[in-house]
Amino acid sequence: MGIASKYWKLARIDSFSRCKSEVLEAAKNFFDEQFPEQAHQKEVSDRNIQCQLMQWYQSSDPRGEMAEKCLRCFISNVLKESCIALEQKFGERHYLYSAQLLPLVLDTAHNNQDSESLTTHILSTFNPNKSNLSTWVTIIFKSCSAVKQSLKEHGIVQLTDWTILRYTTHTRLKRVLSSLQLTSTEIAKAVKLFDSFHKVYCTQLSKHRKAKPDSKFNTTKYPQPTREQLNQIAEILSGDIDYSPLRKIISPEEVLEELQKLAYILRETWTQPQQVVEKNNDEKKTSKLPDFCIEPFNNCLHESVKQVVQTRFDYIQRKGTVKGKEQAKRYLQALHLFHCNGVGLKNIAAQLGFTDQPHLSRLLKLKILRKDIGRNLISNLKKYVAELSGYSQNPDKLVELDTRIQSLFGEEIDELIKDAEKEAKNGYRLVMNSKLARSICQFINKCPHFNN
Amino acid sequence: MDNFISDLTNDLFEVDNNLEIINLEEQLQPAFLISEKSNNPLIKWQVYFQCLALFAFEEWLQEREPRLTLDKENSSTLQYQYANLIDAVFNLKVGNFKVCLIPCMLLTNEEVAIPRAVIDLPEYTAHFYVVIGVDEELEIAAVKGLLRYDQLINIKAELEPEADWNYYIPLLQFNQEVDELLLYLQCLAPTAILLPEIPVSRRDILRKVQTSLLNLLPQLNNRPLWEVLTWEQGKAVLTTPLLLNWVYQSINQNAATLTKHLSDLLEILSQQAVNVGLWFVNQIDDTVQTLSWQLIPAASELRSTSSMIQSDTSNYIEELEIILRDIQFQEQQLDIPLTAIRVYQDIRLNQLLRLYAVIWSLPEAENGWNLLLILKASNDNQSASSFRLRVSDQIEVLDEQELIISNNNYIYTQVEGDESDKFIATVISGTGETQTFPPFEFIRE
Known about the structure:
- The structure holds 2 protein chains of 2 kinds.
- By secondary structure, chain A is mainly alpha-helical.
- Chain A has 22 helices and 3 strands.
- Chain A starts with 8 loop residues before the first strand and ends with a helix.
- In chain B, 33% of the residues lie in helices and 26% in strands.
- In chain B, the strands form 5 sheets. A 6-stranded mixed β-sheet of chain B has the order 2-8-7-5-4-3. Chain B has a 5-stranded antiparallel β-sheet with strand order 11-12-13-14-17. In chain B, strands 16-15-18-19 form a 4-stranded antiparallel β-sheet, with helices on one face.
């Protein structure tokens, strides 16, 4: 049951990329006229209305044109709700906002008849006998490549039943099922169902791997099994004495339902959050650097900063494209703003023209940068110290020294990283003053790529 | 609205923030092409995922520490006979370390399945076992977990392998500070983690299960090994590259020919070969006689010593001379040098038969050698019956000839090889009785 206004209020994108809802008077009058008994009710029967509208729209009925308008209104409203729902669920943790999503899916003021429009695609693929329009809209919405890409960039991804079933193996399924409170008959049936699914579905999949997906609206590599595939599975199961002892004919609908149940079970067991194991920190001793490491420390730190920042710079522009080169340069600029000028990430993003902060964070990868610098520092020191002491002659001693340096230097570096993190999280940000920040700053100032 | 949100988002996942996402967009196509070349449709998928895991790992190293060199030349995934049977990427090297990659699902925390072959067989163990989460639909991957060999062995001590020859280990038991892998690879000495030695002779294991393998392997029919073999039998197959090749070949080939070759291959693998190279340097008497081959003096010595040769031997000499002349007349290119070694053996299979072997080295090709085998009935008054002579090397059945006994006729077959070749000859009677001879090989001292 739904709200009548959905059929005559159109949500679309204005020329300032904002979402606007407007009442289409003609559509409202049409709707009130055609569905007088629904018009004044709080909730309307979507199923009946949609069937009727589709029938007019698909036939040469004179009411077809207005029916299409109503359907388009309805679709736009479900799309809008979907974007808002995603923001409600993921906005806070993933910086995902409906303002980013809406322009990807809604029609603009000019393009509503465009064949490229998502609404047009939904309308042309909708079958009122198979599902209700609202469900259909959300299915297409989630498989739309622009939406998927945007979600992916914010760390949100879709895992469909069919992907889960495709990835599962016979043994894995058995292990999951036997860990649940199921009878052996139930387990045997589920395994049988799963095996028949694999037999039919998986051997027919490889053709999907080859080319790019058919359209930008449907990027699913593991689509719901086709009617034909469900029939084939049903046929195998109907003839199987273990699955259907009374020789009952299994319908394709039953197969679909049972497969979805199975996927649900797997999803539940595999997506329980992992318990985090508390690391035992007692082992770390608070010993200082061995004396012979203090002197080379600064040199080695500078050396590692140079190696790691240069590596990252090279990696970003590895493809030699103009875009890559620009990105690499922006990388140095962002590092510089962060470490030398004490500018916060949000401001850096705005200043350097990143669409949002997650984009910048992915480019900077600050934590990883620090880890890599730390590791290379140990590696450099090890070389240096081993040379000095001739430790490399004795493998046992070298390993022992290596372990010691790792635990000692690990701590020194941890301190540096912690310092840097504290500074980075400070709202007002001061110019960073740690050894690490100063070293990074010094390197970038001298870097030719930065200065020209 | 709440229902709407949960319906809309119930199949959406939040990727763990701690995972460092590796983009796979450019790796999908090459991985797909590699998997397509596999001749087993059932494992294309497996190879595809192994490739994606391998390429993801390569990309990760490239981004994080390009000074570490990845050697994937010998990696199992690029050799289908391995990828076919063991679902992991092993025989991969980073610097002096061996690394084994385990592909799994990126988004879920399912148990990690590690094939016991890469843990229990020293041939395939690694210093580090790295779980690579792959989502090919989203075209992303991430390094999810890490275990050193010594840590894995401790965990394994508490586990039983499943019937499918996998150990299932919760992801939780892996070290998720995967950056430590880079630290190990960069700063640790490989000697810090000891890997088990490969046993010197795997032949003993193979000998024990030889008969059962000959019986069971032809029944594989594309099923996984664990459905057909015990682990002891599987171990023999998995540690014998030539048998892995055989299993991979068997996927699309004629079963009868392959079974014949399997029987010969198992003989080659389980028996000590006769190094005929030694026959050219003095040690003729010992080796030849213990193997019941009778030496015929070389043609070059014949003229000077002919008076000393006993008359029954001289029969063989003469018989062989005539046959060789006859063969060389038929095959103009065949030039048997005077220095060729000639031996014979009488065998009884329903009837008395004689097998001659003539061996010579090829002066023009370094390490090249020739083996000519001739089979004939020992005397002429035998009833008509048929025999077959078959020669195989490690790869295939090279030749099979049929001898129908009448009128003093003979059959022959000639093969050419180098130091890596081993040839095995089998004589089979019409009633199916067989006699196999220890394989020939030719290694110069």
